């Protein structure tokens, strides 16, 4: 199973959670006096941050997503080549 799609998805979700924290929850806390938004969104962002280690840089997931997409393609190409060679070997000896 290819782990790259999951890593990419978690990275994208983590990046969005950061934007929600900064752009929605923080203004709600400081401008509307509703600190619960920061508590909820901050907690979710923290969990995602730990899951996705590349998030050490703000917006890091957006930056590395392109390279992860390339890795995903390389992984699938290798996996496909392996399946083709297995089927060829089976056809020759089958």
Polypeptide structure, described:
This protein has 94 residues and is mainly alpha-helical. The chain has one domain (4-93). It is 84% helix and 0% strand. It is built from three helices and no strands. Helix 1 (4-32) packs antiparallel against helix 2. The protein is elongated and about 65 Å long.
Oligomeric status of the shown chains?
Answer: single chain
Radius of gyration: 20 Å
Largest sheet: none
Mean pLDDT: 82
Number of domains: 1
Number of strands: 0
Q: Which structural class do the helices and strands define?
A: mainly alpha
Brief digest:
This protein has 94 residues and is mostly helical. The protein has helices at 4-32, 36-51, 60-93. It has one domain.
Features:
0% strand, 94 residues, mainly alpha, elongated
Topology, please?
Elements: H1 4-32, H2 36-51, H3 60-93
Helix pairs in contact: 1-2, 1-3
């Amino acid at each position: 199973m290819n782990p790259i799609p999951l890593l990419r998805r978690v990275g994208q979700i983590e990046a969005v959670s950061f934007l929600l924290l900064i752009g929605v929850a923080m203004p709600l806390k400081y401008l509307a006096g509703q600190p619960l938004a920061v508590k909820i969104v901050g907690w979710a962002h923290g969990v995602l941050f730990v899951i996705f280690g590349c998030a050490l840089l703000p917006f890091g997931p957006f930056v590395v997503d392109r390279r992860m997409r390339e890795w995903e393609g390389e992984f699938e190409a290798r996996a496909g080549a392996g399946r083709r060679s297995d089927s060829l070997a089976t056809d020759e000896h089958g």
